[in-house]
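> tool_call: predict_assembly(chains=two)
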Amino acid sequence: MICVVTGASGGLGRALAAALVAQGQRVVGLGRREAALQASKTLIGDGFEPMTCDIADPAAVAASFARIEAMAPISVLINNAAVYPRRDILDETPESFAATVAINLGGTVACTRAALTGMVARGEGRILNVATFADIAPLPASAAYSVSKGAQRIFSRALVADLGDRFPGIVISDWLPGMLATSMGLPGGLPPETAAVWGAELALWRDPTLNGTVWERDRELPPPRSLKRRVADRLLLRRPVPARRLGLTGD
Amino acid sequence: MTGIATIGGAEAAQRDWDVLVIGTGIGGGTIGRALAEAGLSVLFVEKGRTVPGRDESPLDAAIADPEARRVRGGWPDPVLARIDGHESRIFAPLGSGVGGSSVFYAATLERPEPHDFDHSEARPHPAGGWPVSWAEMQPWFDAAARLYHLHGSPDPLSATPYPALTPPPPLGAGDAAVMARLRARGLNPYRLHAAQRFLPGCRDCLGRKCPRACKMDGRSCGVIPALATGRAALLERSEVLRLVGDGQRVSGVEIRHDDGSHRTLAAARVVLAAGALSSPRLLLASRSSAWPEGLGNRHDQAGRHLMFHLNEMVAAWPGRGAAGSGPSKAVGFRDLYFQDGRRQGMVQALGVDASYGEITHYLKRRVEASPLGRFRLARESVRLPALAAARLLGTAKIFVGLLEDLPNPENRVTHDAAAPGRIAFDYRVTPELHARRRAFRRAIRGAFRGQWPLLLGQAPDPNLGHGCGTLRMGRDPKTSVTGVCGRVHGVDNLWVADASVFASSMGVNPSLTIAANALRLAGLIVEDRR
């Protein structure tokens, strides 16, 4: 079985790949930058296989996933790769905007679709989409990033709508790792290695009840409950299901 | 269950088939398999699709989008139901895909009683009896029970042995407690007859598709073994629009592929197995100069005598021993099957436990049916008693009594030339049925006395998954559509192999009878070819 991590040439992707390998997993890391991917390989060592692939190119994705499935069945896909160009809307062209969308949303769609072929045949698999809060309140100079990452979260929900009842063994979740000290994040953020331990645990957790769940850092974000629902639950002595946590098993 | 091979329309049209089978549910799947295994070449024509991979879709009435329903194997469009004059558009529990509705069924294949087929003074038959007797059917019941790997225990009340049954896996603690409570009431419970192979890791795929060849249905026990003979092929995504011919013979089947293209397949023999709500619709849609009233409808009988079972659901609390053991569809009894001269039916576990939500749903429907139903607050107020009920009952077991429906010519499948692909029917609950229903409900309540029985549902609840009788078998062409051989009266090469041919609805689930009759007809078709 193989775990595929996109954007494995640095930052959180490299850390996720390392955390999965540390758990004994065989990981294929996708990335555009060959030298940086090789650096990941040097750092992580055995168990990590770099594969150069531009996820914005659907043909390249299809070819890469065919190669991986020929090696071993894909059990986990972490859609991690993303770009955050930090560009004011007045500096965007429709083409530059679409290029960001092609990576952040298009890459997730292409990799997911490719991984699903084998997962559907086997009736099981795990897809973890690395997400952000950027779509809730977009920061200045983040239009293409916010829109594409927001759409990626909608894509997760649409996947569950299409597949959740038919293939309950294919478990799909969103994971928001929080602000990280990576090139995309902030210097004061969390070390990606810390977050990656949670991400790896979540990716290897196959409980079907995780389907459609959203996680922030190490905890589950329960779906929002309307006021009416909360009142009704109170009246009926119904307690909301407590949010789950990561990192609680073992030390 | 991956990779069911299909062929394209052009290839299907090039080859000569001994038999075209329309529909791939229990009837079509079983007869197609038997014919292919007997050496005939068979083309299955299926409106729906094969599904990719290890699909486990349940049949979900809440999914309304036709494309989303198609990929899940559900009938894509709502059914136009006129019940007691009230018209509604509802998603019936009908499949459209390889295996038809059966891929979703609970795999309960129960053998009918002799009085379901045979007329007698003591137990007069509502249609004067089937043209084939129970004794003639019995070897076919056995054959179908073996083919479908039936596991269960014989009904202690039955006088006829049932050697084809395989002993079931051991009963769980909860079901054993249920059985003990029923026995203590003087009843004769037995293990329901399940078309499941109980392979290691069996998850009881009741109400949803089984991803393995464990649950036996029209797909796993019909189409797939038929294709394995090398003599059968599957044409999917192809809706039959009408049958064409010259009066005595059907010469072809006009189909529309789901890309919108049309084609007519030549046919030496045709077996219609589209289900009791669709088979008559196709005959009525086949109106032509050769058949001005529709095919097989010279005497205005096609589509009439539509029957459903009325589902009588009861929540019962069998006691601590059964608590928390999880739902299973393991136990049933026939003590109420025929009482005081009344045809009623068997009672069986439904395979669901009563959750708070389900009880709420039923109580809500009960309030909605009352004058209070106009007030939203009243509807919501049922939540509190429901909560009390759920607490009192804990995990109640739900049982369902299948009340036999009697043939009535005014209850019928209808055909609208403006919407020929739509399933539509007109059905009334007769005063006779209302009266028998009241008696059956009383009897059910009595059977569960001491187990806090709560009858769920106030209005009659026709089981739209159990439709039958719409092309019924009989000896007289004036009052039936098909003959004892399942052949449409006056047509040499057209057979019907689904529940349409039922002369009565019986007091059991229809699937075993459909399968047994399909095997019987297959033998007759093989003879016809010689």
